[in-house]
Amino acid sequence: MTLSLQNITKSFSAVRALAGVDLVLRPGEVHAVLGENGAGKSTLMRIANGLLRPDAGTISVDGVTTRFRSARDARRRGIGMVHQHSTAVPALSVMENIALAAGWPVAPAALRRRVEDLTARLSLPLDPSRPASHLSVALKQRLEIVKALASGARILLLDEPTAVLAPAEADELLGFVRGLARAGGAVVLITHKLDEALGVADRITVLRQGRVVRSALRPEFTAAELTTAMIGGEVAVAPRVRKSTDWPVLIRCDALEVARESGTGLRQASFSVRGGELVAVAGIEGNGQRELLRAVAGLRRPFRGLLEVSRPVAFIPEDRSTEGLIPSLTLTENVVLGVGRAASWIVGRRVRRVDWPAARRRTAELLARFGVRAAGSEAPAGSLSGGNQQKLLVARALERRPRVLVAENPTRGLDLQAAADIHARLRAAAAAGAAVLVYSNDLDEVVELGDRVLVAFEGVVAEAPAGADRQAIGAMLLGQEPPRAG
Amino acid sequence: MRGNLRAPGIGLAAVLGGVLLLSLGLEAAGYDAPAALAALWDGAFGSWRAFTGATLLRATPLILIGLGFALALRGGALNIGAEGQFYAGAIAATWMGVHAAQWPGWVALPLVAGAGLAGGAFWMALPVILRLRFGVLEVISTLLLNFVAEALVSLMVQGPLQEPTGVYPQSAPIAMAARLPLLPGTRLHAGFLVALVAAAALSWIFARTWWGFRLRALGEGPRAAEVSGRVPAGRMVAMALFGSAALAGLAGAFEVSGVSYALYQNLSPGYGFTAIGVALLARLRPSAIVLTGVVFGALEAGAGAMQRDAGIPAVAVYVVEATIIIVVLLGQALARRGEGRASPVDAPDAVA
Amino acid sequence: MEPLAVAADVLLAAVGIATPLALAATGETIAERSGVVNLGIEGAMLSGALGGAIGATLAGPAGGLALGILAGVAVAALFAAVAVGAGADQIISGTAVTLGSVGLTGTIYRQFYGAAGVGLSIPTLPPVPIPGLSGIPLLGAAFFAQPITTYLTFGLIPLAWWTIFRTRPGLALRAAGEDPVAARAAGVPVRLTRSVAVLVGGAFAGLAGATLVLAQVGTFAERMTAGRGFIAIAIVVLGRWNPVGAALAALLFGLATALQFAFQAAGLRVPYQLFLMFPYLLTLLALAGVVGRVKAPAALGKQEEGERD
Prior knowledge:
heterotrimer; A: alpha/beta; 6-stranded mixed beta sheet; 21 strands; B: mainly alpha; about 75% helix
């Protein structure tokens, strides 16, 4: 089965996501679609999967022009998508989730046998009666793949499947993908990692700003060419600042334990961070890093052990629109909420009041200073783009003049320039004397950003040796001893 | 707040739609609709006496309970147990009132009002504990406690609080000292003024204070409010719920000490539910609640007149009230959806 | 009277009282499993009661049941349009629908039967003893000498259980109630599923109301459901969102009410209101996890959300 997308165009409001993109998927082929965040990869896949309708262009299956009205429509034609985040219903069991997706009968005994047969045949073992909510991130992804194949998918669209996996898990997945293609399936691998594309793909298409920059068989590419194709020009990167080592310790924890939120919880962390340091934390989802960050930010109480954090502390949560900002409130209101009662606009002794005009003036200043593009301080926060929301969150955090700044995945979903901007702000905060603790599930970001790197594995936090490279930190993510650097 | 410009339009449309639906229904059922509406209008606004002694009198509990509903919902909590809290307040106030014979009014009245506040708040204790300690939604717990309260009133008026002869299922009349003064030349008690003051106070709290702002933030974005570290969510929700229940309890106390002077079963003709419409129609704004409270009070007052003068069942106004609530809900839901489409929310994220 | 006979009488009354509650709660279980709390069920039940009375007057008991179901579905359809179709707040929509039903049924009732409203005598459903089974001591009369609606309930409860837990529509229903976004990703039409669940719930509530009139009370009165619809919501919680559990919980409510009558008849000085309170307090305890843990469908009461990722 061959799926071809021709001249696909799609816009959201004023933003043009795709402009005349062509893509052909052939059986037996792994096709990598490569591009930076915002290049249009996900939009293209949503169109191929029937989740979005293109403004213009045609989709054809085996030469016959067609139109997908829904994801179900696409699935009927043998197109299955594996999303980056689980789409399983948490409270239902593995086999119920498969039955739901594949349209199988629900009678438990027969369903169990059928699921066991399939997972054995695919060599993707899963316990059929386990609730989906109890699966690890890697197993949830495995469930997604089994669901798609159980639904009869012959073309599999994988959306950044390795982003949430440790390197060894990622290798296993990529091996499976190769096997699937050998058996005659077609696989699209969406990624922004060059080595993945070069490692497993038969064909590579590079997207940039909604256009195909290059599309060719793999041997025609070199790593350097790919980089240039993806990024286009140079991106401004903030210069690294020299660190002073005699600044005071602002975060200190010793034998710290924090009860679990998901995964293992934090079982053991002993380290300290000085002012002026930017420490990056690496870890696969559910290994305790989330609890660590939230404990340092003062949002979770330690269960045991020592935790000393200098105040004030500012926190930038990962989920911008539900944990960071309140979309229905104005930018001013969001700033007022985040800065708290120590702010200059909080007046009155016995009953604290808000001096709204003062807060509005200050918010307008912050918007200008941090380059937040918004229709004024009274616009609702929900009207900002992701990058601008993040800038506002950073601005708000720094407005507290924090001695400790904690951030979770601060550049997730941002384009390169916005990400570089956020990195520069974090570095500047450290340079000004704050202790900055950043978690990222992007290993490259961890390596690039951190003066030091901490690795969380099964709730235990260990420090990577100075100068550890990507490979060494990747090994630690899976609990292996870091190889001696150098 | 969103869609502010459209809000009065929706509200007006809702009220007109409700009345229109009532007229059509009455015509279809063979009643004389214009005569019925005239009776409704006369009963509510026909005379100063009707306006103060019927409309405003009935508006008073609706305003107080509506303010309480808004207070809780601003913080994201749904208190649909006002009916029960109203009764809890009425029971406490009655108990205080029948024992107040020896006291002067300036002692008795604050005590009666305080008993109402405390009784209402007490009725919220279990829902608050259940929510904070066990994560039980206050919607279900407050709803269930309505029935417990009704049973408790029944128990009281046939037991500890029954009038001395032990014949009728009602309490003894409360002491004169415990009765609210009436506004000169009317049958309207001073509780109405208290309701106005409460509306003004709440309005100021929401608009100006740090506490009121944080409560609003908690209602609009509970996760973000909590993660900001500035909003002790549990404590604030508890305070809002207790405040909400206390206002309903105060309404119960005023009903006893300003209208009925004794505790009965069915003291409330469903104020606790009608007040939800009052608060919603006002879009939870305290100053507007005064206005919508009067509108609903007029409907309730006019309903009695309509039954008396035009032979139309008083319960027919519930259809009007329900229509108003539903039209407002639909208006809000559709406005929200319209905004969702028009605004570029997350568009660049969706591209990524 | 000897104790066994008293117990049998109490049980007989309990099953009769429990029947409409179990019906309404089973319907609400279906709705809540799809993620919708329908407080309008009280209104649907009340409308079903009036429909039952009018239908029986016009066309006998079968007509009563049919019109009762129809009335329940009509009320549920209004709720579904507002709460599921337009996505308005479920709790408030349900309250409004109930309020409107009180007004409408009161008005129609007076229109239909005159302002006096008395002397309403309608054909009712007599008990139908099942030969043999109804002779079992203690339980026989209670479970096997009941009106036809009780036997219907005996059949509908396992049917509802089987549909929810053993069929594909049931799986779609549960998925919509647990995680609408994921359900939609799996191809479940969430709004349609929820709407149908609410309508089915309305049919059950309407049948419950008609049963109340035709098999229990024998007449209609304004506001006659007196909160039974809300009780059904408590029963759903107590029954842990499972029709079989709901049936048992309904029986418990029936027992508490029947005991209250028995105590009054026996002239015992225990305030009967305590029996009225007891089931609600028990439900609150159940919610708190004191009487076993309960877990609501995760998306209960929430709007269907947009794309998650």
